[in-house]
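During the no-cost extension, the postdoctoral fellow (Dr. R.K.) reprocessed legacy sequence entries with the updated structure-token encoder. One reprocessed record is reproduced below for audit purposes.
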Amino acid sequence: MQTSQPPQAILTSSKQQQQLPLTFLGDNLYVRYGIAGGLSAFSTHAIMVPLDVVKTRIQIEPTKYNKGMVSAFQTVLQQDGMKGLTLGFTATAFGYFIQGACKFGFFEVIKQGIMNRIGKERVMSGDLKYLQFPIYVSASALAEAIGTVMLSPWEAIRIKTVNQPEKYGSMNVWRGLATIAREEGVLNGYFRGLVPILLKQVPYTVTQLTVFSYATEYFYRGLLPHFGKSKNDLNTSQQLNVSLVCGVIAGLTSAIASHPADTLLSLVNKPGETRSVLEILKSIGFRGVWAGIVPRCIMVSTLSAAMFLVYDGTKVFLGLPTTGGK
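Re-encoded structure tokens follow.
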């Protein structure tokens, strides 16, 4: 029976680890996965804040922002100036660093934990290959559920800052969180949107990580061998280009899978909104849940490509191999 490399072997056998030990991080590679995931999610979501502001406004007030994305940008600029396009930046940065660390860290803990017990090569290309899909799905779903609980308070203050800039725009994020807790209570204020966040983030992450994992594995294990090459024949720059392209594919599919819940999340946090998720869904109908799909596809595909590029680039810096292959 074939067995997979233990985590420590992956870490110590990496060429990058020999060049840059970073011993202060210890020999637990999952800490490194978490750091890489946190930095990738933080940096890429922070960059996309202006587009996310416009997307949220379109979802909240579709009758006002109904002339396309460029017009929506202009309206936000006229109303709130450049500051309006950066609303919620701090909440986005904090929230997605924590969420990214949980998402990628626990995904690797769960995925590799299962594969190390039953044999990675048996799952990836052997008699247990049929388990590959359920392992990816279950690991990504559980990891995202943990990350989503941690993200929920930050997402609540981000959306309120975007939708109520006159109230929350001048507050720092800590004061904003305290205001929500005082006026609405912790559970209702921070976690009122938890169900739609889960409905948004879990399908998003399951699709994103599963598609990305399959795409990179197909390239390294399926496509390259047809040309008589392996992953080791590619330099780091070429491997990161693979991560970039696979990230675009993963981003487009995950955007479509999670968009209806993303729309509901924005509407649940709309000022004065007291209806339940089901009541909102009935009122906007099937067509309404797809409001803002074009800017979100643009945002998410760009975001996903950049995120996986930063993720794998940071992994290399921390002494880990890029995603995919042996």
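DSSP finds 15 helices and no strands in the chain. The two ends are 17 Å apart (CA to CA). The remaining legacy entries will be reprocessed before the final report is submitted.
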